[in-house]
Write a structure and sequence with these properties.
By secondary structure, the protein is α+β, with helices and mostly antiparallel strands. It has 2 domains: about 60 residues, no CATH class; about 120 residues, Polyphosphate kinase middle domain (polyphosphate kinase like, 2-Layer Sandwich). It is built from 4 helices and 7 strands. Strand 5 and strand 6 form a beta hairpin. Helix 1 packs across helix 2. The longest helix has about 35 residues. The protein is flat. The two termini are about 15 Å apart.
């Protein structure tokens, strides 16, 4: 990661040097990007074709939060307000301040909140750290056979507006 950060800084500074292999900064970054994309694609195939089917055979299911019925959604809304919301603090991201420190050991979401109605304040962005003290898997559908879960970050995404006094309109998850 430090090497990539150094390459990005060199690119921003307009450095035109070549490394020992003769590649420019941009060529090195392109190579790294291609490698990362192929590794992530390979991980996704492994997860979807190998791991999750075996987990489901063992009676463990991870659901999309949008698949749940009204009763389960109501229970999850209560769980969010009582057990999750008190631990969340959005970190604003703007061009006037350094990018906030991101702890790589925690799950995180980013939030986009709407433009202020008068139009003078632009759309905002924030990072929402999800502390590790909150279980990442939340059990649902306890009356069904097997073990059924949703991801905590999906619950945060669903309730993003409660973090921004009604102005939150989108959230994206990243780990």
């Amino acid at each position: 990661m430090i090497r990539i950060g150094g390459l990005i800084q060199a690119k921003r500074a307009g450095k035109k040097f070549r490394d020992l292999s003769g590649k420019t900064v941009q060529e090195q970054l392109d190579d790294i990007s291609g490698l990362i994309k192929s590794l992530v694609a390979e991980q996704y195939v492994c997860l979807m074709n190998d791991i999750l089917p075996e987990v489901q055979k063992a009676g463990i299911f991870i659901h999309d939060i949008n698949e749940l019925d009204k009763t389960e959604n109501s229970r999850l809304d209560d769980y969010f307000i009582e057990q999750v919301l008190p631990f969340l603090t959005p970190l604003a991201v703007d061009s006037g301040d350094p990018f906030p420190f991101r702890d790589q050991s925690q799950s995180q979401s980013d939030g986009h909140f709407a433009q202020v109605p008068d139009g003078n304040i632009p759309r905002g962005y924030s990072i929402i750290e999800i502390p590790s003290v909150i279980p990442r898997l939340i059990q649902v559908n306890t009356e069904k056979k097997g073990y059924h879960y949703i991801l905590l970050e999906d619950l945060v995404r669903k309730n993003i507006s409660s973090l921004f006094s009604g102005n939150g309109d989108k959230a994206h998850n990243f780990i």
